[in-house]
């Protein structure tokens, strides 16, 4: 399933801002998969990645995890061990509104990763946070069950499948 986000923007130009939303260009690209897409699963948490581990432990075929980490730059929410777990369980990719760590290792794993930056410190693990609720960052609302498309040019969210 090949796509380019600029082509999707052109094809759905009349739907931009409605059905198709473009995320502000704020993420750095990691992982060996440059482009990825899938149905959105959301987490809202702050400096606690226990829910990330639980979620990546589930079947992720055809899914993208969107983590609203509050934009924290004080610790990492995803590291190489979680990225390997996600890849083994079929996750297409992850968007982290926060930081990751072990970026060199993550860049060798067949998964798409977008994050604000890297940070060497791990997060706490209290199990706090929420799952499957609408989250908003980058000027876009991410609703569970909607579709996300990410490539070298950006990130799109759509209420319907585009490809």
UniProtKB/TrEMBL annotation:
<dbReference type="GO" id="GO:0047443">
    <property type="term" value="F:4-hydroxy-4-methyl-2-oxoglutarate aldolase activity"/>
</dbReference>
<comment type="similarity">
    <text>Belongs to the class II aldolase/RraA-like family.</text>
</comment>
<comment type="function">
    <text>Catalyzes the aldol cleavage of 4-hydroxy-4-methyl-2-oxoglutarate (HMG) into 2 molecules of pyruvate. Also contains a secondary oxaloacetate (OAA) decarboxylase activity due to the common pyruvate enolate transition state formed following C-C bond cleavage in the retro-aldol and decarboxylation reactions.</text>
</comment>
<feature type="binding site">
    <location>
        <position position="102"/>
    </location>
    <ligand>
        <name>Mg(2+)</name>
    </ligand>
</feature>
<protein>
    <recommendedName>
        <fullName>4-hydroxy-4-methyl-2-oxoglutarate aldolase</fullName>
        <ecNumber>4.1.1.112</ecNumber>
        <ecNumber>4.1.3.17</ecNumber>
    </recommendedName>
</protein>
<dbReference type="GO" id="GO:0008428">
    <property type="term" value="F:ribonuclease inhibitor activity"/>
</dbReference>
<dbReference type="GO" id="GO:0051252">
    <property type="term" value="P:regulation of RNA metabolic process"/>
</dbReference>
<feature type="binding site">
    <location>
        <begin position="79"/>
        <end position="82"/>
    </location>
    <ligand>
        <name>substrate</name>
    </ligand>
</feature>
<dbReference type="GO" id="GO:0046872">
    <property type="term" value="F:metal ion binding"/>
</dbReference>
<comment type="subunit">
    <text>Homotrimer.</text>
</comment>
<dbReference type="InterPro" id="IPR036704">
    <property type="entry name" value="RraA/RraA-like_sf"/>
</dbReference>
<dbReference type="GO" id="GO:0008948">
    <property type="term" value="F:oxaloacetate decarboxylase activity"/>
</dbReference>
<dbReference type="Pfam" id="PF03737">
    <property type="entry name" value="RraA-like"/>
</dbReference>
<feature type="binding site">
    <location>
        <position position="101"/>
    </location>
    <ligand>
        <name>substrate</name>
    </ligand>
</feature>
<dbReference type="InterPro" id="IPR010203">
    <property type="entry name" value="RraA"/>
</dbReference>
<dbReference type="InterPro" id="IPR005493">
    <property type="entry name" value="RraA/RraA-like"/>
</dbReference>
<keyword id="KW-0460">Magnesium</keyword>
<keyword id="KW-0479">Metal-binding</keyword>
<keyword id="KW-0456">Lyase</keyword>
């Amino acid at each position: 399933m090949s796509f380019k986000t600029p082509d999707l923007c052109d094809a759905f130009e009349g739907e931009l801002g409605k059905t198709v939303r473009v995320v502000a260009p704020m993420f750095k690209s990691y992982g060996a998969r440059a482009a990825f897409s899938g149905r959105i699963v959301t987490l809202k948490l702050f400096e606690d990645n226990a829910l990330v581990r639980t979620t990546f432990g589930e079947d992720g075929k055809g899914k993208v995890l969107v983590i609203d980490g509050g934009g924290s730059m004080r610790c990492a929410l995803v590291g190489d061990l979680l990225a390997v777990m996600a890849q083994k369980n079929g996750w297409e990719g992850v968007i982290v509104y926060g930081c990751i760590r072990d970026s060199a290792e993550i860049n060798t794993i067949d998964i798409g990763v977008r994050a604000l930056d890297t940070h060497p410190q791990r997060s706490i693990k209290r199990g706090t946070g929420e799952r499957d609720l609408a989250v908003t960052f980058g000027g876009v609302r991410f609703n569970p069950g909607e579709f996300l498309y990410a490539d070298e040019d950006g990130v799109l969210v759509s209420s319907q499948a585009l490809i």
